[in-house]
Amino acid sequence: MDAPPITSGELLCLGSSLAFSGLFYYLYRKKARVVARIQEAPKLQVDDDLPALVSATDGRCLPYVALEGIVLPAKAALTSHYHEGLQGVIQKLLLKEHRLIWNSLARSWSESERVLSEQVYTVPFLLASPDTEAVTQVSVESPLQAVCLPLETVYERFQQPAHGFRDLLGQYLSGEKPKGILETEEMLRVGAGLTGIGELALHPDGSLHLQPPARGSEYFLCLGDWQSVLADLESASGLWKGAALLCAAAGLAVLLHALCRAYRRTRGQQRPQGKEPDGEEAAGDWGPEDSCVICLTRPRECVLLGCGHICCCFRCFQALPARLCPICRGPIDRVVPFYQA
């Protein structure tokens, strides 16, 4: 029974590479569409001309804009738990445990993290103009729906536990060693420069609102400008594109390897059936009794001295592992050509 042209392992590699390349290409196209949408979006700043600009559009709404402004609380601001006088509009308190886990395969300790507590607080806030004389403000809606929260760390403390002998013995027996607890506080501070990318709408009461886009586009809030958001997205898009090309190249290499092997196997099967004699075999007429005793395909072409046997072709003589006659096993002193009339 003939072997299949591609093995099960090669088929698995080919299918996996195609599946991963398709997934990575989808992620690349998704990021690329977001990049193109941000590049086409109007780039605005909060000023007193903004309400007239939005009211002149269809539906009194700009579907996708990049808006820059200064963060101000709409009501009372949040106060830091660890710094007096530090106020913000978004606050995140995180308690994370760090542990060392024994890896029996690598024979080493590997670090792992576990979130013990995570609390996020928000208050309504606005984007205002850096110009103190401007009165226009934009309300930022649903900030927790943004792709990532625009927070900066204002407090961080790592607490290491004290271990006794009994604790150390139990840790080595269980394979888990507590390393410590990390306590952090992150805030979006009042007065920070913020860029929001989303839908800008003018409500009937004349107030402006930046909100998540209605057409499914991503909602961004970042501390930098819109170029920093674009650079991060282009970097992620290039990473997914490279991964897709790499997986596709791996699948193509597996396929080419299988095709080359199948081609060589087909040629090997066809050669004995339809083989044409080469120049040496077609030079004269000779029968099976004159064939080389080693390869049985070419005529006898040389005389082995000193035994004098004429038994092999010149190629097989060159391939002999030792200079011994294939017939009598006698030593070969020299070789002379044998010519048949």
Automatic annotation (TrEMBL):
**Reaction catalysed by this enzyme:** S-ubiquitinyl-[E2 ubiquitin-conjugating enzyme]-L-cysteine + [acceptor protein]-L-lysine = [E2 ubiquitin-conjugating enzyme]-L-cysteine + N(6)-ubiquitinyl-[acceptor protein]-L-lysine
SUPFAM superfamilies associated with the record: RING/U-box
GO MF, one example? ubiquitin protein ligase activity
Q: How does it sit in the membrane?
A: Multi-pass membrane protein
Question: One GO BP annotation here?
Answer: protein ubiquitination
**What EC number(s) has UniProt assigned to this enzyme?**
2.3.2.27
Main subcellular location: mitochondrion
Q: What's in the keyword line of the UniProt record?
A: Ligase, Membrane, Metal-binding, Mitochondrion, Mitochondrion outer membrane, Transferase, Transmembrane, Transmembrane helix, Ubl conjugation pathway, Zinc, Zinc-finger
Where is the protein situated, by its record's location annotation? Mitochondrion outer membrane
Statement: the UniProt record of this protein carries the keyword Iron-sulfur: no
Sorted alphabetically, the Gene Ontology cellular component annotations on this record are: mitochondrial outer membrane
**Domain RING-type, residue spans:** 292-329
Q: TM spans, by residue?
A: 6-28
Enumerate the PANTHER family for this protein: MITOCHONDRIAL UBIQUITIN LIGASE ACTIVATOR OF NFKB 1 (PTHR12183), RING-TYPE E3 UBIQUITIN TRANSFERASE (PTHR12183:SF6)
Q: What is this protein called?
A: RING-type E3 ubiquitin transferase
Q: Which organism is it from?
A: Limosa lapponica baueri
